[in-house]
Design brief:
The protein is an all-beta fold. It has one helix and 40 strands. The protein has a 22-stranded antiparallel barrel. Strands 5-10-11-8-9 form a five-stranded mixed beta sheet.
Length: 679
């Protein structure tokens, strides 16, 4: 008897040669033993990690290159208590401290984890997270109540691409590897008017066959990747105190999706492979005006995306079994977002003696999502009974403010508050909803800095997420907004004259009316019929998430660079009964491993060579709130050898040396006709 169709999406191993040709060195041999201070830009004011009373991971260009990463999904495991969900070719949904969406079909979601790319909102559309010409990725853990509101209940991922340069800079790279990998990228930057008008252009095209083989079609590229990204940035110093930044971007992701297998392998039998595509246009404008003591900023961002996700629902070819059904499912979304923000803030650099610093802002975000579902069941019968279209519009209007007050020489008190009006319009044949919510959140933080190398802090944050509705009449129609209270204690410190930096956070989060996404399958009503899936969101009474995050950066001498992270997480639903009457009370939350780690080291030798090794791993975790299937524990190793004598660089790298199967998403239901569709 074949195994039950408990399906996992799996990573495979990858070995590749990476060739880089640049006009400046790829990696510079360290001339100092101090760990470089990383500046975080996601917190409105650009500040170093040591200055922020919050749990933040910053992954810079050097760390991205050390992992030879081309997409967000390949670096997020470096950060403590961050997970991803890959029920698609590229991971579109992320989880921070156990909170975050895992997939999307016909349902409407309000993301718990925000994703910004150069200030443009791509929350819930993480396929766009390609990393070519990216300078830094910042992960802010915990609710970002004051700054980002309902779009960042669990946290925020901020991707910042490289800025224009005042000197001419050129970069060319070519990447070749197993599984048909080819990637080529080029960037060029420099001045149009020296000191006044600067620009940057970056373009990349990447292709890979992927890790799946389709035995029925005799192909190795049905889950392949074809990804293009292009960006243009303009920076204009209009006057001494007036700066204008403009950026434009285009992303064309044309990936396949063929990963479902009845025997949980990377070998499929589908005759109608699916797709995981996204085309996005984005534009952004930022205007900054400085006066003697204040700064005014105006930001406007737009994006227009077409997202096409589909798969062979029966997983096999026609004629596989006499009791089979034949079906494909496809979800095509047109997604438009627009945001406008006005910021007013004091300038600490203009008045460093001031005991009080402040900021205030007004914010608007509008998102329109039009969905068309193309569903085919038994092609000859042309049964399109589950086809439908829907329109979902949301609008967020918010005002926020924050005050930082010095209390003596070493103490600082921070008070933040945000109020938000959330509105939505939903239209579907025979269904109409117009919910709205008035929400508020805030932050109180107390900092103690005995010296410039140490920061102790404690913070209480009230986060929130808007409520909504379920359109399916088989489930409760409405669910309430969720409130999250987050208590943190942190210590950030530089040791050994800056050669060692450590960041430690202890946190406790209490979820009130926690929004839980569940689903159930009615199964095929008769041979030849497709199963029917129903997804919905409900409220648990409450949940608890607590744990710690620890990160370390150490440079003992000019030859060695060491980095490490550890996340420990304990989650629980206090009282919740899910789909089909499954009692989840006391159970861990989904996609919330109890521990995860990452350790990496780089050794620079002979002035032009670099050897890097990284080890990562995480505990098992539940895949869903609809069943009790779990992943297995996983550990994997990556190796990189680089040679960079000057403007030319060459590296050889191996990803997943031990050929570990890494499970990233799981579904549990009956889909095998040979065993009567038993679950």
């Amino acid at each position: 008897m074949p195994p039950l169709p408990l399906f996992f999406v799996l990573f495979g191993n990858l070995a590749a040669v990476f060739l880089t040709v640049v006009l400046q060195p790829v990696s510079v041999f360290a001339q100092t033993t101090a760990v470089e201070e990383i500046i975080v830009t996601a917190d409105i004011r650009d500040r170093g990690q040591l200055e922020l009373a919050a749990s933040i991971s910053a992954i810079d260009e050097e760390m991205i290159r050390a992992q030879e990463a081309r997409h967000l999904e390949e670096i997020l495991s470096l950060a403590a208590n961050v997970n991803l969900s890959q029920g698609s070719n590229r991971a579109r949904f992320y989880q921070i401290r156990g909170l975050g969406e895992r997939s999307q079909f016909t349902d409407r979601i309000n993301p718990s984890v925000g994703l910004l790319i150069d200030g443009v909102d791509f929350s819930g559309a993480g396929t766009a997270g390609v990393l070519f010409d990216v300078e830094q990725v910042e992960i802010l853990r915990g609710p970002q109540a004051t700054r980002y509101g309902s779009g960042a209940l669990a946290g925020l991922i901020n991707v910042r691409t490289k800025e224009p340069t005042s000197e001419f800079d050129n970069h060319l790279e070519v990447q070749l590897g197993s599984h048909g990998l080819f990637s080529g990228g080029i960037s060029h930057s420099g001045p149009i008017l020296p000191g006044r008008l600067l620009y940057r252009v970056a373009v990349q095209q990447a292709r890979s066959d992927g890790f799946i083989e389709n035995d029925h079609l005799g192909r190795e590229d049905t889950n392949g990747q074809d990804e293009f990204a292009g960006r243009f940035k303009l920076q204009w110093f209009v006057y001494q105190d007036l700066q204008l930044d403009l950026h434009l971007g285009y992303i064309d992701i044309d990936n396949g999706y063929d990963a479902f297998s009845l025997n949980n392998s990377r070998t499929t039998l589908s005759d109608q492979p699916g797709q995981d595509r996204q085309k996005s246009l984005q534009a952004g404008l930022r205007l900054a005006l400085d006066t003697d003591r204040t700064r005014f900023e105006f930001l406007a961002n737009l994006s227009d995306s077409d997202i096409d996700y589909g798969y062979d629902e029966d997983w096999v070819f026609r004629g596989f079994d006499s009791d089979e059904y034949t079906s494909t499912d496809r979800y095509k979304r047109s997604r438009e977002t627009s945001s406008v923000e006005w910021r007013f803030l004091s300038r600490p650099e203009a008045s460093p003696e001031a005991a009080t610093q402040w900021l205030a802002g007004l914010y608007y975000l509008g998102r329109t999502v039009d969905l068309t579902r193309d569903y085919t069941n038994n092609f000859d019968l042309a049964d399109n009974s589950l086809d439908f279209t829907s329109d979902y519009d949301t609008r967020q209007y918010a005002a926020y403010g924050e005050v930082n007050r010095r209390l003596g020489t070493n103490w600082t008190l921070t008070l933040g508050l945000r109020g938000e009006l959330w509105e939505a319009d939903y239209r579907e044949t025979g269904v109409r909803f117009d919910p709205n919510d008035l929400l508020f959140g805030g932050k109180v933080a107390l900092e103690y800095s005995p010296n410039e190398q140490t920061l102790w802090y404690t913070a209480i944050v009230r986060g929130y997420k808007a409520g909504g509705f379920n359109a399916d009449p088989q489930v409760p129609r409405k669910f309430d907004s969720e409130t999250l209270y987050n208590l943190e204690f942190g210590l950030k410190k530089h040791w050994m004259s800056g050669r060692l930096s450590t960041y430690l956070t202890l946190f406790y989060m209490r979820r009130e009316d926690a929004q839980i996404r569940s689903s159930f399958s009615a199964g095929p009503s008769s041979p030849g019929a497709a199963p029917v899936f129903v997804e919905y969101i409900g409220n648990a009474v409450r949940g608890r998430n607590c744990g710690l995050e620890f990160e370390l950066a150490y440079r003992p001498n000019t030859s060695w660079q060491l980095n490490a992270s550890l996340g420990v997480l304990d989650t629980e639903y206090t009282r919740f009964v899910g789909a089909g009457g499954v009692d989840l009370s006391g159970r861990d939350q989904a996609h919330a491993p109890q521990w995860q780690y990452a350790v990496s080291g780089q050794y620079h030798f002979a002035r032009s060579w670099t050897l890097g090794l990284s080890a990562q791993g995480r505990d098992n975790y539940y895949f869903s709130d609809s069943h009790n299937a779990q992943s297995t524990r996983s550990h994997w190793l990556n190796l990189r050898l680089g040679y960079s004598p000057g403007r030319f660089g060459l590296s050889f790298w191996l990803r997943n040396l031990t050929d570990e199967d890494i499970e990233t998403r799981g579904f549990f239901f009956g889909n095998d006709p040979r065993i009567g569709y038993a679950e």
